[in-house]
Amino acid sequence: MSVIRTILSARFSKSVKPLIGLNVVKKLSTSSNIIDSSFPDVSIPQISIPEFIYSKCEKYENLIAAECGITGRKYTYRDILRKSKNLAKALRKKLNLKEGDVVALLLPNVPEFPIAALGVLHAGLVVTTLNPIYTSEEISRQLTDSSAKAIITLIDLYEVASNSSKLLNKALPILSIKSSQTQSFPRGAIDFREFTDNSIDYPEIQPRNAQDVAFLPYSSGTTGLPKGVELTNYNIVANICQNSSPHLPIIEETTSTHQDVIPVVLPMFHIYGFSVNTLFMLSKGTKLVTLPRFTPDDFVSVLRNHKPHILFIVPPIVLFLSAHPMVKSEDLHSVRIAFSGAAPLGALDEQRFVEKAGKSVSVLQGYGLTETSPTVTAITVQLKAEKNVYGSIGLPIPNTSVKVVSIDDHTGTPLGPNSTGELLVKGPQVMKGYLNRPEDTKNTFLDGWLRTGDMAYYNEDRVFFITDRLKELIKVKGFQVAPAELEEIIRDFPNVEDAAVIGVSHPTQGEAPRAYIVPKKNTNVNTKDLEEYFKNKVAHYKHLKGGIAIVDSIPKNASGKIMRRQLKLEFEASNKR
């Protein structure tokens, strides 16, 4: 394990107290409170994503790269290389796609995903990814906004893809993948295998420039409707290199006798699943076991049959593994690390998972967003052990600087330790901008710093903690209340399976917290006792004066984030009746 170094900036400070037990390599300016990464910078090559990934994959040609956790169909690294390169030529020759054209991937987690993504990129094209549960109308909006020229999807999703194409009043070519051998191709569908399994005599093209846009995921950013996030080859390659730093050891080296196994349940169409679970993992020679959707039975089956070494998951899955009786301690015995991202995971939830695992498993958290390719901070096993910082998202990764600023300060003056404000980021992983939205791009940056829209603070050891989303803070008589803080407390109350908190209008408070609670199966939650419980846990302005609702489920998006806006809209609609 490499030594974690203190977070000190390159400016000056002879009096900063070093972290106990950690070596000092950089110094932090106590006057600036800008937190630079404590880790040495990594070298970032000026090459395209396929050039970078292919150079790594060649070392692992005989190993399994991706296997479906449901059907068992699988591809070696040699298959990934050959099929994606065939696809690249076929897209250009058969569909006449030109450099910079956009191809939409409407795919759940399937082993063909990396073939499709790398093939599109190797052809000099741009990948945009779509949520496979979208309606035709939602798909057509993204196809229109991104100017997509083709779609790659499953036969199962051909109808919705075809309908979305019709809404554009133009027929897009739709390459379709069989998810089982018994399927037949619908009329008009193009067999994906015709493009991947046949070598075509067609000239190679020059790899795209590192600064060219390669990936176009969609994100709401800090406000508004989903926007195309322009991530360049350099952004993605940079983040893979940053995550590969020897000072952030997660993956064990792939050898002739060892290959880390990673279940891929987080959606590959999401930045976390695309960049971290797919491209980063392929660069390390791991085996990806794909699950098209999370179900308790399928996930536990993968745990038992594939014995994974690392779990890249989100808080709801951590809670499932900790609390569900189906999951036994022995199901987690092969796991070294559980890495949680996409939303904050509270300290109590971390501890419950470790207790369930019943062994020395490290629960690590990181932080990132679509606009940062995605990783910004990460915690290491050593820092976790030395500082016992449960619930922390850790330190800025190499080549990255962050600061916390007051939400009402437009000068961007950084705050000191233990002061909560909006987190701002600088680094090579930060997006180029939003597609065709110069005003949104301008508003997302403050003097060159990306505004994340997330509330955070750091302690005296420069270790960071996320408290909540800026736009989801509850304003109670001028006080700011973070929903995630209250949700963690509620989840620790007897018989509570899950919880969400929103702010609702209140006649005297301005806003008041309102809780939505999912009881554990065959149990009840005593709401009056919960209200009394809160009185001893939090300040009076955090009490649940907006009410408590017992519900069957909490709405969450594909990456596991609670859809508080949906709950708020439903609450407002019900009050108008």
SSE layout:
Elements (H helix, E strand, L loop, with lengths): L34 E2 L12 H9 L6 E5 L5 E3 H18 L7 E5 L6 H10 L3 E5 L5 H11 L1 E7 L3 H10 L6 E4 L12 E2 H5 L16 E3 L2 E2 L7 E6 H11 L17 E4 L6 H13 L3 E4 L5 H11 L3 E4 L1 H9 L13 E4 L6 H11 L4 E7 L6 E4 L2 H7 L7 E2 L4 E5 L15 E6 L6 E2 L3 H7 E2 L2 E10 L5 E6 L4 E3 L2 E3 L1 H9 L4 E11 L3 E10 L7 H9 L12 E3 L13 H13 L1
CATH C-level class of the largest domain is Alpha Beta
Q: Counting H and I runs of at least 4 residues, what is the number of helices?
A: 16
Q: Give the CATH superfamily of the largest domain.
A: ANL, N-terminal domain
CATH architecture assignment name of the largest domain: 3-Layer(aba) Sandwich
Domain count: the total is 3
Sheet-strand content, in percent, reads 15-25%
> What is the number of strand segments?
29
Largest beta-sheet details: 6 strands, antiparallel
Mean pLDDT: 89
Helix proportion range: 25-40%
Q: Which class best fits the helix and strand makeup?
A: alpha/beta
Oligomeric composition of the shown chains: single chain
Give the N-terminus to C-terminus distance in angstroms.
60 Å
| Unreliable stretches covering 5 or more consecutive residues | 1-31
Molecular shape:
globular
Radius of gyration: 24 Å
Can you summarize this structure?
The protein is of the alpha/beta class and 577 residues long.
